[in-house]
Design a protein that fits this description.
Strand order of the largest sheet of chain A: 1-14-13-5-10-9
Order of helices and strands of chain B: HEEEEEEEEEEEEEEEEEEEEEEEEEEEEE
Strand content of chain A: 35-45%
Number of domains of chain B: 2
Structural class of chain B: mainly beta
Strand content of chain B: 35-45%
Radius of gyration of chain A: 45 Å
Number of strands of chain B: 29
Oligomer: heterodimer
Shape of chain B: rod-shaped
Radius of gyration of chain B: 33 Å
CATH class of the largest domain in chain B: Mainly Beta
Largest sheet of chain A: 6 strands, mixed
Mean pLDDT of chain B: 87
Order of helices and strands of chain A: HEEEEEEEEEEEEEEEEEEEEEEEEEEEE
Distance between the termini of chain B: 39 Å
Structural class of chain A: mainly beta
Number of helices of chain B: 1
């Protein structure tokens, strides 16, 4: 009997330990039993389509800020229903910051997509090491994505990072729109404009001398403004082909060699016009005609009753200025008179 | 699954938990009750995270508790602001003592599986004493938002209490709420038409005077993007281009009252019914005849940092020529707008 009791006790002890073990192991097993793979929501996600217009091919940008610290090996972008996707090879990428959101940082290790299945595009990725960083990349080929053919709102998609298995790590939903038109056409007309302004209508040389060339003390100017793309020209002519005195019996101090540039010499009686130029802006290159090029004492060209080109430009002019310097010198035999005069006519025209 | 795992651990692992260690063990055929003339043992097998209970006691999840308190009433659980990634919860204290701590369980499958709200208001699998927080820590009467939820998903929550020296309750009644999907709407129009094609015209850009296009650009935005977004602008030519004149009036950021010539954009109004607010971005936030440059790459016209309802951004294009800009009747450009909500 005693033996029987010990055997019973042994059996019960075994049963107790078994039950406890089963309880313990069950508890342990339940505590460490791995959960099924479950993606966590991304901290932030953005997919920007550079064109929102229906049926337009578009490039774009993908940004995501991870939540988990797992090691990424790829990212899947699900594009909205109705968007047409190209082959994987069309999803070329770069990490140029194209007006990314504040804090946007180049997506580590992003590469050209290696798979397109239905609306899902898979890009190889490096590890997104920081959960406080918004990682971004651009797809650069308009052949990759074409916006759906109808205008709708809240077109939904997702971005999911994955491990190398692959298993989802973090996922986020995004939304976009498709528009009938995302563009505004701008048109403008710039009317023709030409201004040609004389600064003064008189130029008094004063007493002429045999010993030196007398030039305009305050040379008149012509200011030209024109938006003629082909430029403009100024012409000049005079009434007397020189300075004429009625009181001296219509004696004329002649214009020296009209149409030819020269420099007056003291004591040798002649008159001419020297032209110098300046310009604030415009596309044209302004230049005085060689025959009338001034810039030195007595340097210029003689005017006559024929309109002669004094300056020209090959483009637009913003504040182009012609400075007109009249020069004259007399000889010992030039009749004295106080009424030597001439009338110079200046004409300008633009070529639109 | 449980049986398989248990078998594996019997072979390889010294069984233990945070509350006990089994130093010797063996298989047996014990049942729930073992007894003899001199002893009796009652045992129960169950999930530590479940409500281990009998007629006289309930064990709260995650900790070793001794006696019971009343389970809290169902919390107030709502989608406060058309959110897609969070829901708002306010605990019901049910007259429990002020030092009561609360654990919040959450599930999207009717508690076939469960997660727990963590101290950073996200959800996770971790459940221990740290998940229990006092009412104030859970936002008090204002409540708090549970973060990191999936969009377009119905969630259920239930609350358990812990009071004093690990005196705990089981979970109370369930409350449910649903996140929505991320949404965005964008409507483009001009002051002349809401139907494309959209155009604006500078009918006569005589030199010397800044001129506004005859139509302003209008973008109407509504989105629940929690991080807001931005409206960007870019153009085709970086200016007004004439093929006939072979000339482009370049766009630049400038005060056209002073500059000799130029072309650019200015946000003239930025409003919203709620949310946002929309803020025009430099250099498009000028006044008078001050404009921001248009380029062939996207530039932020205006942005907002929060969800927005009926946001409205009006933009004017302004141009000025001088004599250096060739006359022509075919100056043109194409301006494109793009919206990027940050969810």
């Amino acid at each position: 009997m005693l033996r029987t009791i010990r055997q019973q006790n042994t059996i019960k002890k075994v049963s107790f330990y078994s039950l406890s073990a089963l309880l313990a192991f069950s508890a342990v097993a339940l505590v460490i039993q791995p959960e099924a793979a479950h993606a966590v929501t991304l901290n932030k996600v953005l997919v920007r389509f550079d064109r929102l217009q229906i049926s337009q091919g578009t490039t774009g940008t993908v940004c995501a800020q991870p939540t988990s610290t797992a090691t990424e090996a790829s990212v899947q972008v699900v594009f909205p229903t109705g968007y047409t996707l190209g082959a994987a090879g069309t999803f070329t990428v770069n990490t140029t910051n194209l007006n990314w959101p504040t804090g946007g940082t180049a997506w580590t290790g992003i590469g050209t997509a290696n798979n397109v299945t239905s609306q899902t595009v898979t890009f190889p990725s490096g590890d997104l090491a920081s959960t406080s960083t918004l990682y971004c990349f651009n797809w650069t080929n308009t052949a990759a994505v074409t916006v759906k053919s109808s205008a709708t709102s809240s077109n939904a998609g997702t971005v999911t990072t994955q491990t190398s298995v692959p298993a989802p790590i973090d996922t986020g939903s995004y939304s976009t729109v498709s528009l009938a038109s995302d563009q505004i056409g701008v048109s403008a007309s710039v009317p023709q404009a030409f201004t040609f302004a004389l600064s003064s209508t008189t130029d008094t040389l004063g007493a002429l001398s045999t010993s030196s060339v007398v030039s305009s003390s305050s040379a008149p100017t012509i200011t030209v403004n024109t938006n003629a793309k082909n430029g403009w020209t100024a012409w000049g002519q005079d009434a007397n082909t020189g300075l004429k005195s009625v009181s001296a019996g219509n004696y004329t101090i002649a214009s020296k060699t009209p149409g030819t540039n020269s420099t007056l010499v003291a004591g040798t009686e002649f008159a001419n016009l020297g032209v110098t130029t300046s310009q604030t802006g415009g596309t044209g290159t302004l230049a005085a005609d060689a025959a009338f090029l001034g810039g030195g004492t007595g340097k210029g060209g003689g005017l006559d009753t024929t309109l002669r080109t004094i300056a020209s430009s090959n483009g637009t002019a913003n504040n182009a200025v012609l400075t007109l310097t009249n020069n004259a010198v007399v000889s010992a035999t030039t009749p004295a008179a106080t009424d030597y005069s001439d009338t110079i006519t200046m004409v300008g025209a633009a070529l639109f | 699954m449980l049986r398989t795992l248990t078998a594996a651990f019997l072979l390889a692992v010294m069984p233990s938990s945070s509350n006990y260690v089994l130093h010797s063990y063996d298989f047996g055929n014990g049942s729930g009750t073992a007894s003899g003339t001199t002893y009796k043992m009652n045992g129960t097998v169950g999930r530590p995270s479940g409500a281990l209970s009998s007629a006289t006691y309930m064990l709260p999840a995650g900790i070793k508790a001794s006696t019971s308190v009343s389970a809290p009433a169902a919390p107030t659980f709502i989608n406060a602001s058309n959110n897609y990634d969070r829901l708002h919860l306010t605990l019901a204290t049910s007259s429990l003592p002020s030092d009561t701590k609360y654990l919040i369980a959450i599930s999207s499958d009717g508690f076939a599986t469960a997660k727990y709200v963590q101290t950073d208001n996200t959800i996770g699998s971790v459940v221990n004493i740290n998940n229990y927080q006092v009412y104030a820590a859970w936002g008090g009467a204002s409540g708090f938002s549970i973060l990191g939820l999936a969009s377009n998903t119905t969630y259920s929550v239930k609350v358990a209490a812990l009071q004093g020296s690990n005196t705990g309750s089981g979970f109370g009644p369930i409350a449910s709420a649903a996140t929505v999907s991320p949404t965005v709407t964008l409507a483009l129009s001009t002051s002349l038409t809401s139907t494309p094609p959209f155009t604006t015209t500078f009918s006569s850009l005589a030199p010397g005077t800044p001129i506004n296009g005859n139509a302003t650009l209008i973008a109407a935005i509504t989105t629940n993007a929690i991080n807001g977004g931005a409206l960007a602008i870019y153009d085709q030519f970086g200016g007004l281009k004439s093929t006939a004149a072979n000339y482009t009036l370049a766009s630049a950021s400038a005060n056209l009252s002073v500059a000799q010539n130029g072309y650019g954009a200015q946000v003239t109004t930025a409003t919203q019914t709620s949310g946002g607010p929309i803020v025009s971005a430099s250099p498009y936030n000028g006044s008078g005849n001050t404009v921001g440059a248009l380029t062939t790459s996207q530039q932020t016209l205006a942005s907002f940092s929060n969800p927005i309802t009926n946001g409205n951004i009006t933009t004017a294009l302004i141009a000025k020529t001088d004599s250096s800009v060739p006359s022509a009747g075919d100056y043109a450009d194409t301006v494109t707008l793009s919206l990027s909500p940050l969810f």
